[in-house]
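Sample entry (263 residues):
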Amino acid sequence: MRVALNTVTLGREIDPVEALQVSADAGFESVGVWYSTLDALQQRVGSLDDLQQFSALRLEEMCYLGGWMWATGEARDQALQAAEDRAAMAADIGCPVVIACASGGTGCPDQAAEDFRAIADIGAKYGVVMALEYIGAFEQYHDIKSGLQLVRAADHPNAKLLIDIFHSFRGGTVVADFKLPRGEEIGCVHLNDVPAGDIMQMNDSHRVLPGRGVLPLREALGYLGDNGYAGALSVELFNQDLWALPPADIAAQVKAATDELMR
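Predicted structure, serialized as C-alpha cells:
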C-alpha cells in the first residue's frame, strides 16, 4: 500500500497547482485531487496544462460525484452528466478513480445497484473506476458491510468500494469487518484518525492525523493487506486547526505521521 495526500487536507479551496507543488516538496509521490478545484482552475485559465509539470506525482483519486443514487427525471440526467464530466476529466489527467458518494436517506437496494452500474458504465467508457463512498451518519449506506453489499450487487468491474476509516467506524464498522472486502473490490482507502471520545458524536472536522488518534489503524490496514489490497491510502482530513497553518507545514506533519504509522 502507498500513502497519498488528498489535497483537501491542505485546505478546502487550495489552488490545485499549489497543492501539488506542496505535496511534491513534502516528499509525497501520490495525491488525491478534487474536481471542484480542478474545474475552477480550468475555468480560470482554460486548461489543466499546468498540472503536467507534476507528471511524477501519481494521481490516485478524484473527489467527488454525488446525487446519482435514487435520482429520477431531470436530477438523474444531471447526475449522469456530472459522472461524464468527472470521468472525462479524470481520464484526461490520468486519475484512475472517481469517488462516488452514496445518498442519505433510504431507498430500494436494487435501484441503488442499478444506479451504481449506470455510473460505472460511464467510468468504463473512460477507463475510470467509480468507488462508492458510504457515509457514517447515513441511514442505509454507512459502513463496510452495507457498502460492500452494494458493490457486489452492482457486479461491475468499474464499480468498487471506497473505504474511509472515519466513516467506517462512525457508521458502526468493527475492525474485524476490514477482513470482508477482497483487495480487488477496493478502489481507494481514505486514511484518517479521531481523538478519544464518542465517535458517534463526531463529524468530518474531528479527523486528526493518522496514528495520532485512537482508531486501530494498523490492525485495519493489516486486514486489508492480507486480503490483497495494495492501492492508495489517501490522507483526507477536514481539520480546522491544520487549515490554519501554512500548507507546507500541514504536508510536513502528514508526512511525518504517516511515515511513523507505516513503519
